[in-house]
Design goal:
Elements lengths: L3 H11 L4 E7 L2 E6 H17 L7 E5 L4 H13 L2 E5 L5 H11 L1 E8 H9 L9 E6 L8 E3 L9 H6 L6 E6 L9 E5 H14 L8 E3 L6 H13 L3 E3 L6 H8 L3 E4 L1 H18 L1 H23 L5 H21 L6 E4 L6 H9 L4 E5 L9 E2 L18 E4 L4 E5 L6 E2 L3 H7 E2 L2 E10 L5 E6 L4 E2 L5 E2 L1 H11 L3 E7 L6 E7 L1 H10 L6 H4 L3 H15 L8 E7 L18 H7 L1 H6 L3
Parallel strand pairs: 1-11, 3-4, 3-5, 4-8, 5-6, 6-7, 10-11, 10-12, 12-13, 13-14, 25-26
Antiparallel strand pairs: 1-2, 8-9, 9-18, 14-15, 16-17, 17-20, 19-20, 20-21, 22-23, 24-25
Helix pairs in contact: 1-2, 1-3, 1-8, 2-3, 7-8, 10-11, 10-16, 11-12, 11-13, 15-18
Length: about 575
């Protein structure tokens, strides 16, 4: 296979009438067959070619996850151009940077709000000839045109046949937790390799239903797009975050991927709810969870589960876990977690409930997919063995190195940074980890984010952060600090969707500013910190913490678009609070 458009063409030929995508249309869900996908992509590709898209060109997509994102992407690739992805949450200035750095000449924008961003910086976008709006108003000057009007004629198959595996397919800009975003160049072959490797694992088939809400601007979402075309899996697609719970109930998918933050919020909501109920419900839940954890840990070790434990688990399942699975539609076979580390405590909770999370690992620079746990041999706390065809090495300093066909071509226009990231064909990930006896990869932290105390001891902050969040369901984010300090401290933020109802039920103030200062709230956080501190070396314990009034957000610059903490930004913004811990 030479390209993603050729892959789509083969999929249409193999299963033309099978469901390809389901998408919301008002209050209903509509479906497109693979044949109908082809009928939408073909004229759009020819229309984009007429606007100037073609080999060596780039087209940016500035939109949330929706059917038209996928159709536009496939059409762009068919012209021979490469897709540049932009998060819809990006500011006008950030959009302008990506568009100009990538050299995009056409931008596909979701709606009038996104077009307004582009108009506000139009003078800074001299290379953009057209903005194609999905849901919005065309301009009188011809700069903004409607997607529905972008059609053309020509030899679509001839365009596809000219594509090669080494041609650029995607430019994805790194989230930029530190420094300037870099455009990662990924070829058609990069994506085709990862899709083929996932197919080889036999995780999913055409009889599954995939629910996709992850940002297609992120490499993880793009990977899922290509995998589903390769295998022929129908995908229900809707990027509205406030509809995730309702969509799960309506669609009843068998497969869904998510970032750890979603699993954390579900876990925290469940725990906070039963704590609020108290009494018999809380005792039953606590017993069921303990029973489930015994079964989960035995399963991971391959140990025999005694008959009495199996009987207890069956009762726990009927009383507690089956109800949780019903919230996901009742048909899920697998959940995939990626894009950031999953707390082991949260992973064990889901595994105990019969909701298998297959945690995986990959970077944008490795086409999002490098490792994944396998069904039947899940080991929580690891990201599983590498995908078939991916090589893993551990450097002398513990850094994880990756090799194989999924590794990027380089950083766009940045030869020095490319040379620093790629060494003798190996990608230097910046992650610290190890391989267990069965070849599973365990990530311990980011190389650049390890805390080195003034006493010379190294601390992995993300491990502590995940455990504290799992121990206190009312928290949204935890930030552990202590680099070159003599002890570790933490900033925590409240998840008011969970903490608010709890506070009202307890007769406490339910606004974040007042609640953070209340002794009861501090007691809850202190209990979680003490629980985590109990099994840590002294130098890794949290000595002090502060509860912030405002959560970390993408808009405030404290989170990346994929919801990872920007550590330097948090340290800078809250420097006075952090410094006060040490005076």
């Amino acid at each position: 296979m030479s390209s993603i458009p050729a892959l789509l063409r083969d999929r249409i030929a193999a299963t033309p009438d099978a469901d390809a995508y389901r998408f919301p249309d008002g209050e209903q869900w509509r479906s497109l067959s693979w044949r109908e996908v082809g009928e939408r992509v073909r004229p759009l590709a020819l229309g984009l070619a007429a606007l100037g898209a073609g080999p060596g060109r780039r087209v940016s997509i500035l939109s949330s996850t929706r059917l038209e994102w996928v159709l536009a992407d496939l059409a762009v690739l068919a012209t021979g151009a490469a897709t540049t992805t932009i998060y819809p949450s990006n500011t006008a200035a950030e959009c302008a940077f990506v568009i100009n750095d990538s050299g995009s000449t056409i931008v596909v924008a979701e709606n009038d709000d996104q077009v307004a961003k582009l108009r506000s910086v139009r003078e800074e976008l001299p290379g953009v000839t057209h903005v194609v709006v999905i849901d919005g108003t065309a301009g009188d000057d011809g700069w903004v045109v409607p997607l529905s009007g972008v059609t053309g004629e020509g030899d679509y198959d001839a365009m596809i046949d000219k594509l090669g595996p080494e041609d650029l397919a995607t430019l994805i800009y790194t989230s930029g937790t530190t420094g300037r975003p870099k455009g990662v160049e990924l070829t058609h072959d990069n994506w085709l390799y990862v899709a083929g490797a996932v197919r080889e694992l036999d995780l999913i088939s055409g009889s599954d239903l995939h629910f996709l809400w992850l940002p297609l601007s992120h490499s993880f979402g793009k990977l899922l797009e290509v995998v589903m075309i390769d295998i022929g899996v129908p995908t229900a697609i809707d990027g509205r975050l406030d509809r995730i719970a309702a969509n799960l109930g309506e669609l009843r998918p068998t497969f869904m991927a998510a970032a750890p933050r979603i699993f954390e919020k579900i876990h925290n909501t469940v725990v906070a709810t039963v704590r609020g109920d108290g009494g018999l419900k809380l005792r039953i839940f606590t017993w069921a969870r303990a029973t489930g954890l015994r079964v989960s840990r035995a399963r991971q070790l391959g140990a025999r589960i005694p008959l009495t434990t199996r009987l207890e688990y069956a009762l726990a399942d009927r009383l507690v876990f089956a109800k949780l699975r019903a919230r996901f539609g009742g048909r899920l076979r697998y959940l995939i977690s990626g894009a950031a580390p999953l707390s082991r405590d949260v992973g064990e909770f889901f595994d105990a409930a019969g909701l298998t999370i297959l945690e995986g690992y990959g970077l944008t620079e490795s086409s999002a997919g490098s490792c994944i746990n396998r069904p039947g041999s899940v080991r929580l706390g690891t990201v599983g063995p590498p995908l078939p065809g991916t090589q893993v090495r551990i450097a002398e300093d513990g850094e994880i190195l990756l090799g194989g066909r999924g590794i990027m071509r380089g950083y766009h226009g940045l030869p020095r940074e490319t040379a620093e990231a790629l060494e003798d064909g190996w990608l230097l990930t910046g992650d610290i980890g190890e391989l267990d006896s069965e070849g599973r990869v365990r990530i311990t932290d980011r190389k650049k984010e390890l805390i080195k105390t003034s006493g010379g001891k190294y601390v992995a902050p993300s491990y502590l952060e995940g455990r504290i969040k799992a121990a206190c369901p009312y928290l949204s984010h935890v930030f552990v600090h202590g680099d070159l300090r003599n002890y570790c401290t933490a900033l925590v933020t409240l998840d008011m969707e969970v903490a608010g109802p709890w506070a009202r039920a307890e007769g406490l103030p339910d606004d974040a500013e007042a609640l953070r200062e209340h002794p009861r709230m501090r007691e809850e956080v202190q209990r979680a910190v003490d629980q985590v501190n109990a099994d840590q070396a002294s130098y890794a314990t949290i000595k002090k913490f502060a509860i912030l009034a405002d959560d970390f957000t993408v808009e405030s610059g404290e989170l990346t678009a994929s919801l990872k903490i920007k550590r330097k930004s948090v340290e800078s913004r809250h420097a006075a609070v952090l410094d006060a811990f040490y005076t």
